[in-house]
Design a protein that fits this description.
The protein is mostly helical. The protein has two domains: 56 residues; 35 residues. The model has no long low-confidence stretch (mean pLDDT 84).
Length: 123
């Protein structure tokens, strides 16, 4: 039914439009947050890189005032900050968005199929 009457093409077009609208609606409110996260992440990385650079020379000297593991803490923390995502989305967010966007298209398609089945059953 979907191929012969052209409903498959309409469902695909409606699905693409719905997904694009949902993606835009998801992106628009968080673009400022994305910029802020990126800025704070870069500031923190710059600070950590400066601290690691200044402590590098004292790390090689026999200065007893530095704490044990201090350099490892800075390097580990820098790695943690580097892995922070700049977008406030996870994979589950994208999955939910995709499934929510498919709900209207799927219900429309199922309604068309149900109408066709009922029409054939009572004719």
């Amino acid at each position: 039914m979907l191929i012969e009457t052209g409903f498959g093409q309409i469902l695909i077009i409606a699905g693409i439009v719905t997904l694009m609208a949902a993606a835009f609606a998801l992106w628009l409110p968080v673009r400022g947050l994305h910029t802020r996260i990126r800025q704070l992440k870069q500031e923190e990385l710059d600070y950590l890189n400066r601290e690691i650079s200044t402590r590098r020379s004292s790390f090689q000297s026999s200065d007893s005032s530095r704490k044990s593991g201090e350099m490892a803490d800075f390097v580990t923390y820098r790695g943690l900050i580097e892995r922070v995502s700049e977008w406030p989305f996870t994979t589950s967010t994208y999955t939910r968005l995709f499934l929510y966007a498919l709900l209207p298209v799927a219900s429309w398609g199922i309604g068309i199929v149900a109408e066709e089945i009922v029409g054939r059953a009572f004719l």
